[in-house]
């Protein structure tokens, strides 16, 4: 099945996570994505292990980190610091639809590979620049990393236990969200190009994305004038909406409305709570959070987690277990939806997590495993008109791999 972006060519000059995440999603949607990598070290994340994956007959080993964001791509290993390498990139850009990059502001201009220079060669080219702080402003020159941006962007201030240290998330979530926003920007520019015939430059900053993704917590602060405090696993605006200890473990309870709370109160043996002015509405429950949570907690401790989960599901009260990653992939629903996949790279089975998008019930997922460094250099260069001798000479000179 062809993807919605079949016929679109993406020049992916990004590395680490945010840019590659966008490139992988575009590949899952059917685009041809050519990943530009340094001839010697490749994408930084190839070395971010352990854990590693390698076939017994392969010298190269690759970190699991790299495998999470580079499915569906072709790898062209070329030295963009060399004049000949720059000429190759310009030739590719002249026939591309999209260029992704996450160099520091001005980093590509010194090579003549910045968006303005490439658009002069190809007016239809869409550029997407991903940086820590954007293309302008007092911080524009700074490098940006997810952990630092979670701190600066306010996310850490609302994560962690009230009396503990502020905490980052267990995944580089700002990078992932930035990759998603970048993809949205690229898709919008592609749609606009149908009408105008012209490309557009998309400027995406990790800090901007993190601030935008504060969602209700940002508005809590802007409406009240008070910065939200940390609530650990509890919700700042909804009660009860948090983790609770049971006799043998923990569960998460997410009561989203008063009808659900009424059913919970009945299950816990206190139907009168639903009529008590102190608990009858969510606003009242938020105001009496500590007292109500203490009462609920004492009851949950009397039975085992799975017993409670069965009772909660039977009454339509949203709740779930706190799964480990291994338990996630063993979950019947996750299995049914096919979220764990395996792609072949020669004889090697490369595990993957599926793209969550489906079109007419068909998953959007490239069947091409993350590439070895320079795996597709010969093919791509030959398509560009280079002979075998030309490619061999470039390889001897260290310009390509």
Automatic annotation (TrEMBL):
InterPro entries: CoA-transferase_III_domain, CoA-Trfase_fam_III, CoA-Trfase_III_dom3_sf, CoA-Trfase_III_dom_1_sf
Signal peptide: none
Coiled-coil regions, chain positions: none
Molecular function terms, GO-annotated: CoA-transferase activity
Keywords: Transferase
Protein name: CoA transferase
Organism of this sequence: Billgrantia tianxiuensis
Taxon lineage: Bacteria, Pseudomonadati, Pseudomonadota, Gammaproteobacteria, Oceanospirillales
